[in-house]
Amino acid sequence: MSHPLKQPLIIGGGLAGTAAAIDLARAGHAPLLLERETAPHDKICGEFLSGEAVAALVALGVDPIAHGAVPITRVQINAGPRSVTTSLPFPALSLTRRVLDDALLDRAAMVGVAVQRGTALRSLSAATVHTTAGDIKATTLLIASGKHDIRGLPRPPGPDQIGFKMYLRSARLSRALANTVAVTFFDGGYAGLQPVEGGRLNLCLLVDGAQYRSLGDWPALWARLVREPGLAALADAEQVLARPLAISRVPYGHLVPIAPDGHWRLGDQAAVIPSFCGDGMGIALTSGRLAAEMLSAGATANAYQRALFARTRRPVRLAMTALGLARHPAGRWAAMAGLGAVPGALALLARATRVADPGQKPRGLAPA
User: What is the pLDDT of residue 73?
Assistant: First the structure.
């Protein structure tokens, strides 16, 4: 069955898709948003909200603090026995995607977005979107499927790396990491750890695929992690999930400069920044709001993609340079020595990898 649709069709109910949908609805459009999951669910994500991301959420009508978000005021970088800690140069929060995405979907429905949960995209052919609920003719298609690639529109494969996520409970770690996001670099990967609502901690890590296969399984990887000085306190932590969430070959560094097919690519479909920078959620929100703004103004998908590329190119490439440096022991040693010797260097790096949301004050928390 085919359903003609002249209004914007949005694939994906994460941060980018819902941000675009809310702003489009408030501008007088009637977007249809398709979300593949039927209920709130966890996602592989560091769940760090920068000041820009918080400002965007408040402007969209969602207050993270009202949903239990935890303030994050410090960042700690660990590599071997070395550790550098500094205050963040902007206000930040931590909130699980299970809670945040559901709040945004509810907000989208409240402002008039047609939210269709439990509908997954199968493939695309010309202007027809093939979904599990039937075919839809779409003249304007916004692709916000996050880390899930679409058949017919694949991104280049990422390196042989595997991402994992686990929620933890640990009184000792919670005290040590109060209001702190800690990033630990080690041979073959890195891990991020921060408190989230409900007294839990979010552990996200990226590991070289060959290293993981040589270890064999998650328990063996866990044993490897607790040997790192910066992660030793994991030894007494309770793992909350029955098994970790996992994803492979995330294309960090991926950037889309143009839209030759006329589709609008949002969030991770347009720009993928290494997760240790903590700006993935900010980029997603920025891309969604920018798409809505430019679409409402009559811009083309190509003009939007170029504008988003101009905003994301510098922070993504800077983050990729930092990631390349962190992959090598000598690079980690030099970076830690520099961060420890130059006051404010870590804060400057944090600022440099931010992408400002359109229409928002860079580090404000109030709606525009």
Answer: 94
